[in-house]
Design a protein that fits this description.
Pfam family, one (chain A): Peripla_BP_6
Radius of gyration of chain B: 23 Å
Largest interface: A-B, 55 and 63 residues
Number of strands of chain B: 5
Signal peptide (chain A): 1-25
Largest sheet of chain A: 7 strands, mixed
Number of domains of chain B: 2
Keywords (chain A): Signal
Strand content of chain A: 15-25%
Radius of gyration of chain A: 23 Å
Protein name (chain A): Amino acid ABC transporter substrate-binding protein
Oligomer: heterodimer
Number of helices of chain B: 18
Largest sheet of chain B: 3 strands, mixed
Domain Leucine-binding protein (chain A): 40-369
Helix content of chain A: 40-55%
Strand order of the largest sheet of chain B: 1-3-2
CATH class of the largest domain in chain A: Alpha Beta
Order of helices and strands of chain B: HHHHHEEEHHEEHHHHHHHHHHH
Structural class of chain A: alpha/beta
CATH topology of the largest domain in chain A: Rossmann fold
Number of helices of chain A: 13
């Protein structure tokens, strides 16, 4: 019996080994087949776990944009190479995988710039490595990193510690958390006439950043901040938390965090204890945007969501290249992108492509295009978000800082009004 | 030791290398071979060859695997030698990592301490040389090993596992939530501490692309851990660990100080965990609390069990293979498979299915691991006393094949505890 088992095991192992060999031969051949004037843009996203849909939509939208424009950036042909920075075991981005991807971006000689990452934490690992590229620094443009510290003074040593070579190499096309938190607070004070707000954060980089920004701006706007407390993402219910909050008698609750972090239960218990969202206003940042589960939640109706950018609905109404891309996307995939970040992925790609167009095709030159002279500027009629977009050559931050205020009504995120911030 | 040499020599005639020199030479040879391959051979290969190695065996993956090896070797001391099931070993990895984060970065910007550090002298923060941090991290973790070990001393098997599991959950939680401990930011919360200073050797600093040198450093750390493990195993302490593992009661009856021996197992194991943590922080270039979750402890345990509990080389093999499969092998196999057959199967998401399947098969057909410790194999393949007696065997009579195997082993086999173990043959299988 045991001998049969051994034979079986041997066969199984041998089979695996053979199939592995068969696979790698083709993988190697395919990768080395490109040449000539083709430049590769690395796309670094978490393709597994909770962010999977958002990442896939982003890749699809970018590829679609390349197809529409003939993949041309000046005299160069552009190709995407997608890297996964998540692991199945974690179901989220993984620090070691980010470190490995950083090495791969630099090691892959055809690659000239990186679009990504989705998570600010991952960018904090990758950016310093790309910055020290001996043939670079290598350009990195993110569509979704909203942590302020990556481009401006925030925590101690930021942002200089991400650029050991002394030159900047990181840019982004999205407004940072501080703008969004501030916009949320201004909206609460001016439009909702809130007087006393309670802030709950999910204790993560993003949530803490937005929460801190909301708190600071709220105080300036004359709102009394009753507390800024973390919610434990692993709790089965938050009745006790909201009961203690109820005694402080707030008229607005700000959820600084991501819906994935047990946001559904949080909202349910908020309504259960504090009452519905017309009585005690519920405001959330874009960490709660783009989740059908949240939109469909009965208790979430009436909640306000701020979004650091413009949503698909607004962009489609505005017309222009954004609407064209959205229509093509809907035609090909049957629905709008799962996240508005997909369009910002395309925006980041536009920035990289313009840098490539102006450059001589080397990494160093491409990065210099973004961080010298007047930097990158995409005119309104070309820009996918429908507005003129400038990247500051000093910091790599974006000039367009649209914050949209949305309201959940009839299980849909309805656009309420734009909230310009300076 | 003396009886060992002739028996080995008999098996390998013509090899004049003394037994004690064999592993260091073999290990060095393997390490140097890999070094030469990545230093000379691979950079000079054609584009196809380079792409192949970058896809299938990048040096980053090897370095990461070495960190796993160091950590698994530490767990091997606790689980493999002393038989104390530890489900929270990730705690030491985290503690080591944060030691590096604290002492090798600008995180504590209130102070400015530079001790041979890898940063310019004007930068605020604590910047201590990587080599010193290795020592500090090892010592810090040894201390925590004792602290965590102390409450578990009175516990056995399941209860012990649960308490270690508890500590393995507590410590990463402390790091995640430690950004406001009475107003003091100890760990920077979920943002973690990035970036960590580069490794410095003399006045040169290893940049992010000096992977070959980093590889050599990690190999060196692993070698030190192997050396410590092997020397301890043959010594008084190691034999005491084995005695506790085989039969705690009998060991204490024979005068093995249980408390001291167990605590030292935790401490020595934790040292390896701490070294791995410091090495990993420099590998990633930062330390983030997200990583330190339960699945790391389980993966480490799987490495030890699959490789061969108690056998240093088995554990090393298990760690290298599993770490590679996790980080590179499976995703790469998946993408190649999908390209070849035009499918869209997400192979990495079947990771744990594969692990689970392998574990079940291994436990059914080769419980002792890929490269088992000879003692474990002996015990596992011997029927339990009741089984033998039911077949009419006289347990008091000497079993010739057991005696021979025992003398093939080390001199420990002649110790009184072991004689008792092999003689009665209590079902070791139930404990594993």
């Amino acid at each position: 019996m045991s001998r049969t088992a051994k034979i079986f095991a041997t066969v199984a192992v041998a089979g695996l080994a053979v199939s592995a060999c068969g696979g790698n031969a083709s993988g190697g051949a395919d990768d080395s087949s490109s040449g000539g004037g083709t430049l590769v843009i690395g796309v670094d996203l978490p393709l597994q776990g909770a962010s999977k849909d958002a990442s896939e939509a982003t890749v699809n939208a970018m590829q679609l944009y390349l197809d529409q424009t003939g993949s041309k950036a000046g005299k160069y042909k552009v190709k995407l190479k997608v890297y996964d920075d998540s692991t199945a075991a974690k179901g989220a981005w993984d620090d070691a995988t980010c470190a490995k991807n950083a090495q791969d971006h630099v090691g892959n000689t055809e690659e000239v710039a990186v679009m990504g990452t989705y998570n600010s934490g991952c960018a904090q690992i990758i950016a310093p490595v790309l910055n020290q590229d001996p043939t670079g620094p290598m350009l990195m443009v993110s569509h979704a990193n909203t942590n302020p510290g990556l481009t401006k003074a925030w925590d101690s040593g930021e942002p200089e510690k991400y650029f050991p070579s002394g030159k900047r190499s990181y840019a982004r096309v999205i407004a940072t958390d501080d703008y969004q938190g501030a916009a949320g607070a201004q909206f609460a004070a001016k439009d909702l006439s809130a007087k006393k707000c309670y802030i709950l954060n999910d204790n993560q980089t993003y949530g803490q950043g937005v929460g801190k920004a909301f708190e600071e701006e709220a105080k300036k706007q004359g709102i009394k901040v009753l507390g800024n407390q973390a919610w434990d993402v692993k709790q089965p219910n938050y009745t006790a938390l909201f009961t203690s909050i109820k005694s402080t008698n707030p008229d607005c609750v700000y959820l600084a965090g991501i819906f994935d972090n047990n946001g559904g239960q949080l909202v349910k218990d908020k309504v259960k204890v504090l009452g519905d969202n017309s009585k005690v206003k519920l405001i959330a940042p874009d960490g709660f945007s783009g989740y059908p589960e949240f939109d469909g939640l009965a208790q979430a109706q009436g909640a306000y969501i701020t979004f650091a950018g413009l949503t698909a609905t607004t962009l489609r109404e505005d017309g222009g290249p954004g609407a064209k891309l959205l229509d093509a996307y809907k035609k090909k995939y049957g629905a709008d992108p799962a996240t508005s970040y997909a369009l910002y992925g395309v925006e980041a790609l536009q920035v990289i492509m313009q840098a490539i167009e102006k450059s001589d095709g080397t990494r160093k030159s491409i990065t210099e295009q973004v961080f010298s002279g007047s930097g990158i500027s995409i005119p309104a009629d070309k820009s996918i978000v429908g507005k003129k977009l400038d990247i500051s050559p000093k910091t790599g931050d974006v000039s367009v800082r649209d914050i949209s205020v949305l309201q959940l009504k009839d299980k849909e995120e309805k656009f309420l009004k734009p909230w310009p911030v300076s | 030791m003396v009886s060992d040499v002739p028996s080995r020599a008999r098996r390998m005639p013509g090899l004049a290398i003394p037994h004690r020199m064999r592993w260091p030479l073999g290990y060095t040879a393997a390490a140097v071979l890999v070094f030469l391959a990545y230093y000379y051979v691979i950079p000079n290969l054609g584009a196809g060859g380079q792409t192949f190695f970058r896809n299938w065996l990048p040096l980053t993956s090897i370095n990461e695997a070495l960190v796993w090896v160091i950590c698994a070797l530490g767990l091997n001391i606790v689980v493999g030698y002393a038989g104390l099931l530890d489900l929270g070993f990730v705690a030491f990895w985290a503690l080591g990592g944060y030691t590096a984060g604290w002492l090798m970065s600008g995180f504590f910007h209130q102070v400015k301490i530079h001790i041979f550090g890898g940063a310019t002298a004007t930068v605020p923060g604590i910047h201590i040389s990587f080599w010193l941090v290795l020592l500090i991290g090892a010592g810090f973790c040894a201390l925590w090993g004792v602290i965590i070990g102390a409450p578990t001393l009175r516990l056995k098997s399941d209860y012990l596992a649960l308490v270690t599991l508890g500590f393995g959950e507590i410590i990463p939680q402390v790091f995640t939530n430690g950004d406001n401990i009475g107003g003091f930011n100890l760990t920077n919360g979920s943002k973690g501490i990035t970036p960590v200073d580069p490794i410095g050797i003399g006045s040169t600093r290893l940049g992010p692309f000096d992977l070959v040198w980093k590889y050599l450093i990690f190999v060196l750390i692993a070698a030190v851990v192997v050396f410590i493990t092997l020397r301890l195993r043959d010594g008084r302490l190691g034999r005491a660990w084995l005695a506790i593992r085989e039969d705690e009661l009998a060991a204490s009856m024979m005068g093995v100080p249980l408390m001291r021996t167990k605590l030292s197992a935790y401490a020595v194991g934790a040292v390896a965990g701490g070294l791995a943590g410091v090495a990993f922080a420099t590998h990633v270039g930062g330390v983030l609390p997200d990583r330190f979750n339960f699945s790391i402890s389980i993966t480490l345990l799987a490495m030890v069990v699959l490789g061969g509990m108690g056998n240093v080389w088995g554990v090393m093999l298990g760690a290298l293979v599993l770490a590679w499969v996790n980080s590179t092998g499976l995703p790469q196999f998946g993408s190649s498979f999908n390209e070849e057959f035009g499918t869209n199967i997400n192979f990495p998401s079947y990771n744990f299915l594969l692990f689970g399947g392998i574990l079940v098969l291994m436990m059914l057909f080769r419980r002792e691991g890929i490269l088992p410790e000879s003692r474990t194999r002996l015990v596992l393949h011997e029927p339990s006393r009741t089984d033998m007696e039911s077949l009419g065997a006289d347990m008091e009579a000497p079993a010739p094949e057991l005696d021979e195997s025992a003398s093939l082993k080390t001199a420990i086999a002649e110790g009184p505890v072991i004689a008792d173990e092999t003689g009665t043959g209590t079902g070791m299988g139930e404990k594993v």
